[in-house]
Design brief:
Distance between the termini: 35 Å
Number of strands: 16
CATH topology of the largest domain: Vanillyl-alcohol Oxidase, Chain A, domain 3
CATH architecture of the largest domain: 3-Layer(aba) Sandwich
Mean pLDDT: 93
Number of helices: 12
Number of domains: 3
Radius of gyration: 21 Å
Strand content: 15-25%
Length: 451
């Protein structure tokens, strides 16, 4: 029997709370779904009462409050089925990236997972998915074979290249909480069992040299090399090494599928960068793919988080200088900044077209900050300054997966898509959810003027 939790019930607070605490959901009921039947029951409960439906598994990127709605928590739907011969996985709605990586690794296979092991697999794919192997294999969304989704009428549908084709197109890249509840996804796996990967930390005094070298190095990096660079003032926490604690650092990350020998050659310019010395830390080694989450080593403790991003067409010397002016060691920025290398297969269209057709960025520029309510205006003012300054190098596009927090607007989200595809998404929305049951989600790409 489906369990409906109201305010004050045991499990209500746990069920409504995710990783990103910037949105404090106060739904009318929380439904901790353990099966498709639970999802169907929750949607029918909502529609008979005129309530909206929201869905969350891990809560990494909520942008709209689920107040007064039915919030379906899918974290108990944790089934994974691996077909090692077909190299596929069927993954239920509550599965996190780390669980899928471990299950696939038992067969010498890997998914196109992202940098954080705690992100939900389904929502990550629905937003596109910039995987650690993306430059060689493309967006995660390009490797979705089928989706099982319960739509607003309470019907379970299977969408694929031959079934519910328009819904299949829209869900892949444009369906994060807008078109139904995806209860399972079938994806490709890839024969990748190891990496040459890890990170290097550099001191604040080396920031300009590292970023300039990385920008030039990125021009000729092979598609088998994924990389990013993080500019951050580390928190003053006792769990951190003394060399990093409370200090501004540059964290350079690599994920290379070629040989360790070739990987060593490719990262040599950075090991030799500091006047014959070495980086503050260097964890770049041969590793099993199952350890891929250690490369970015992203935090897993729930926090109130606000973020913004844009795609950059290039990163020349002037762009590096401007970025450091706003996010370098002397800027005292209230946020971190990451540059993630795109290009390669991430720039090419998928074999089966999806809503995620805008692929014109050479880099993603991402800024994020933990902020209590009183600090949010200052954080967004800093974002305004940073992204205005970097506008000459921006394509004008955004990455759906990296939009997070309650201040995401419809206009920001719409920039992630081609203009014609925004209209097409709106048509699919009208067809499958004419009553706008799924109205608690990111600013609406299918209705650019809506909030």
């Amino acid at each position: 029997m489906t369990n409906f939790l109201s305010p004050g019930d045991q499990g209500y607070d746990t069920g409504r709370t995710g990783y990103n605490l910037a949105v404090d959901h106060k739904p009318e009921v929380v439904v901790p779904a353990a099966s498709v039947d639970d999802v169907v029951a929750a949607i029918r409960y909502a529609t008979t009462r005129g309530l909206g439906v929201a869905v969350q598994a891990t809560g990494h990127g909520p942008s709209r409050s689920a107040d007064g709605s039915v919030l379906i928590n899918t974290s108990r739907m944790d089934g994974i089925t691996i077909d090692p011969v077909a190299r596929t996985a069927r993954v239920e709605a509550g599965v996190r990236g780390s669980a899928l990586v471990r299950a696939a690794a038992e067969h010498g296979l890997a998914p196109l997972n992202g940098s954080s092991p705690e992100v939900g697999v389904v929502s990550y794919h629905l937003g596109g998915g910039i995987g650690m192997l993306g430059r060689s294999l493309g967006w995660a969304v390009d490797h979705v074979r089928a989706l099982e989704v319960v739509t607003a009428d309470g019907v379970l549908r299977r969408a694929s290249a031959t079934e519910e084709t328009e819904l299949f197109w829209a869900l892949r890249g444009g369906g994060k909480g807008t078109l139904g509840v995806v209860v399972a996804i079938e994806i490709d796996l890839h024969p990748v069992a190891r990496l040459y990967g890890g990170g290097m930390h550099f001191a604040a005094t080396d920031a300009e040299r590292v970023l300039t070298t990385w920008a030039e190095w990125a021009r000729t990096a092979p598609e088998s090399m994924g990389s990013s660079v993080l500019l951050i003032r580390m928190p003053d926490l006792p769990v951190l090494p003394d060399a990093l604690r409370g200090r501004y650092v540059v964290h350079l990350r690599f994920a290379f599928t070629g040989s360790a020998e070739e990987g060593t050659r490719l990262v040599r310019p950075f090991r030799d960068l500091v006047g014959g010395g070495r980086p503050m830390s260097d964890t770049v080694v041969e590793m099993p793919y199952s350890a891929v989450g250690s490369i970015h080593a992203e935090p897993t403790t729930p926090v109130p988080f606000h973020a913004r991003n844009t795609m950059l067409a290039s990163l020349d010397a002037a762009a590096v200088a401007e970025l450091l002016r706003h996010a370098g060691p002397d800027a005292d920025a209230p946020h971190l900044v990451e540059l993630r290398l795109m290009g390669g297969a991430l720039a090419r269209p998928g074999a089966v077209p999806s809503a995620l057709a805008r692929r014109d960025g050479a880099f993603v520029l991402y800024a994020g900050a933990t902020a209590e309510p009183e600090r949010v205006p200052a954080v967004h003012a800093a974002y305004d300054r940073l992204f205005t300054a970097m506008a000459p190098w921006s394509t004008g596009g955004a990455c759906v997966n990296f939009l997070s927090g309650p201040d995401v607007t419809a206009a920001q989200l719409a920039t992630a898509y081609l203009p014609a595809d925004v209209d097409r998404l709106a048509a699919v929305k009208r067809a499958v959810d004419p009553g706008d049951v799924f109205r608690t989600h990111h600013g609406r790409a299918d209705r650019p003027g809506a909030m």
